[in-house]
Amino acid sequence: MAEYLAPHVAVLAHDPRAVEMPVGVEPASLAQVSGCDIVILAVPVAAMRAVCREMAPYLKPGALVMDVGSVKVEPAAILREELPAHVDLIATHPLFGPQSVGQGMAGLKIVLCPLRGTRARRVATFLRRAFGLAVLFATPEEHDREAAFTQGLTHLIAKAMLRMEHLPERITTRSFDLIRQAVEMVRHDAVGVSRAIEQANPFSAEARDCFFAEMEAVRLECEAPSLPAVRAELVEAWQFS
Amino acid sequence: MAEYLAPHVAVLAHDPRAVEMPVGVEPASLAQVSGCDIVILAVPVAAMRAVCREMAPYLKPGALVMDVGSVKVEPAAILREELPAHVDLIATHPLFGPQSVGQGMAGLKIVLCPLRGTRARRVATFLRRAFGLAVLFATPEEHDREAAFTQGLTHLIAKAMLRMEHLPERITTRSFDLIRQAVEMVRHDAVGVSRAIEQANPFSAEARDCFFAEMEAVRLECEAPSLPAVRAELVEAWQFS
């Protein structure tokens, strides 16, 4: 994110781990980055409350604080509870990661959940103009309810497929290639992303139960095909003889 | 297939159902099409033996017979058993369908299983030059073993997702979009294709058992995360605070 923002604005970044900063991004202390006009948190949900408390004293009146976590209900609550009333808040979720950006950012989606203040429209305009992003507005609840299914199911499918090592790579259908590509995109997700999707989304258990119930139904149908399925096959075969 | 072949060769087609023929394709009787230099069967596996018996008397010495079914072990055995020794045989599986061809055929894969005769190389050269297809050679067993996993898993995932009606369409990650696209490609598969993948592939039960076992492992891990998973999350969160 810092790398893509750097050509547009001056970017300071603080990372407690020793990481190399992208070109045009200035390393800085937590106090320094917290004193900026716009502050973007990119931390695991589990670390968010602690980081917010550390940052709070340095935040300038009128600053805009955003996050980029994979779930929104819990981070939105933490931002509202821990950060001073004199800063504006927008919770966000870019619905893509470094793997997808390789093919260009135009048309990729980002969700904005305006929490406090009136600057979400301006942020949306910037994201559209600078990067060609498709900006979606939603409440944190709306986001988590939908993401529990879309992001959640991808995550479950990817986990199962990654457990199946040595899947064939030669005789592959076009549709399998697409699924494989989806799995590769989430293969290197940080542990925190994975756990956020599974645990921190209040709707994830419901989505998971629904998916596993349908999987079980498919398994049973494969073992003992239903009468209508068998009949449809016979009818189709008859048409050819 | 007939539509794409018509610009290259004269194409006669026989379909027992009343269907409209593509431009440049001549409707004909079973006897007429069976008397051609190259005969391509596109029928459900369940109808294949009966159709082969009907065609056999009309096949010319030196003709080339091919099929295009989604599995290869059983169709290959039927072609060998039912068709006269004086015809050449190549079992094939185009690893794509009408849904994928919309975006162009170049780079799409087709498997050729040479069964009898020496014309597979020439067929491969034609498919590469005329359509830009990636031609893979395999035995029927090699094909079915790999397809049981690649085609088979796509099929199971698609079946489960198609059962989940009203999946969200707005807040979708890039990786979910790819899976959704894969599901749409197989949504309209004929009943026979679906049943061939599930039942007529001798390796499909093994692939299915393996996939469902990993799905169950994922389910259990979601309900009660393992100690290493919890530890990894805590370590990651600590690095930020």
UniProtKB/TrEMBL annotation, chains A, B:
Keywords noted in UniProt: Oxidoreductase
InterPro entries (alphabetical): 6-PGluconate_DH-like_C_sf, NAD(P)-bd_dom_sf, PDH_N, Preph/Arog_dehydrog, Prephen_DH
Entry keyword Secreted: no
GO biological process, one term: tyrosine biosynthetic process
Origin: domain of life: Bacteria
Recorded GO MF terms: NAD+ binding; prephenate dehydrogenase (NAD+) activity; prephenate dehydrogenase (NADP+) activity
Family matches, as Pfam families: PDH_N
Residue intervals of the Prephenate/arogenate dehydrogenase domain: 1-241
Signal peptide residues on this chain, from the entry's feature table: none
The UniProt record lists the keyword Ion transport: no
Protein name per its UniProtKB record: Prephenate dehydrogenase
Source organism of this protein record: Sphingobium limneticum
Organism classification: Bacteria, Pseudomonadati, Pseudomonadota, Alphaproteobacteria, Sphingomonadales
